[in-house]
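Async update (no meeting this week)

Hi team, since we skipped the sync, here's where things stand on the single-chain job. The sequence we agreed to prioritize is pasted below, unchanged from the tracker. I ran it this morning and attached the output directly underneath so nobody has to dig for it. Comments welcome in thread, and please keep replies under the output.
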Amino acid sequence: MPFSNLETSLVTVVIATIVGFVVRVRSVSRSECKEQHSAQDLKFKILFRMVRALVVHSNIPKEEQVDILNDKGDA
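Output:
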């Protein structure tokens, strides 16, 4: 049973409205998003310091340590 253009449009509008409402209810505010990003930045800084400490206190030759610690990650 094929749908007419009007029926298809109405179903599409209803579904789009429902999806829009769900997205609006479940979305994160801008301030919450910034808080989450700052928390992630803090975690990444801690991990970065831990990795640097592991490199410094490992048995890697000094030249390689210098290369690893000075690498900016631009690769």
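Quick observations from my side:
The chain has a mean pLDDT of 90.
Helices lie at 5-26, 30-56, 62-70.
Reply here if anything looks off.
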